[in-house]
Design a protein that fits this description.
- The chain is of the alpha/beta class.
- It has a single domain, classed as 3-Layer(aba) Sandwich (Rossmann fold), CATH 3.40.50.
- The chain is 34% helix and 27% strand.
- A hairpin with a 3-residue loop joins β2 and β3.
- The model has no long low-confidence stretch (mean pLDDT 92).
């Protein structure tokens, strides 16, 4: 059976400095590479093979978290089939601003799969300021599809997040069960 090739647009949003770019770099290179501030949007691609039947290319739009770039997000969100809502588990303010990020994407994308992502899990034991339960509450409040905590430093849950997102988009499109 021939593989079906597909392309999905994914937006990665959240405050500056939460680890979005580092997470994407970890995914695409397999290494922890500290990143500098994103200006505007960075674009990356990552290929996921599902059930040996679907060769899916994720077009990952890594959006800058600084407020001055937010006015561009509505346009960048259009056509997105998935969104990673990211926060830093050691910085409460990044969690508190997720509602604004969610509203922007949800208002401009056509019903994307949302995954809540708590970044910097490797620092949980020494600097956690957002409890796992707080994130679970937010997930329920906005009926988000999934929630993961991840570490770009050690790679925990990194690939799993993107594979879960890809499978969920395919299920939503009734392409897999």
């Amino acid at each position: 059976m021939a593989q079906r090739k597909m392309l999905f647009k994914i937006v990665v949003v959240g405050d500056g400095g939460v680890g979005k770019s580092t997470m994407v770099q970890r995914l695409t290179t397999g290494q922890f590479i500290p990143q500098k501030i994103t200006i505007g949007t960075d674009l990356a691609t990552y290929d996921v093979l599902i059930n040996r039947s679907f060769d899916v290319r994720l077009q990952i739009w890594d959006f800058a978290g600084e407020r001055r770039f937010r006015l561009f997000l509505p346009n960048y969100s259009r056509g997105a089939t998935g969104c990673l809502l990211c926060y830093d588990i050691t910085r409460r303010t990044s969690f508190d601003s997720l509602e604004e990020w969610y509203e922007i994407v949800n208002s401009n994308a056509d019903n994307p799969i949302f995954i809540l992502v708590g970044e910097k899990l490797d620092l949980a034991d020494i600097r956690r300021s957002v409890e796992y339960e707080n994130a679970e509450e937010l997930k329920r409040k906005y009926d988000l599809d999934f929630f993961f905590e991840t570490s770009s430093k050690n790679g925990e849950n990194n690939k799993k997040i993107f594979e879960t997102l890809t499978r969920s988009i395919l299920k939503k499109k009734d392409l897999i069960t």
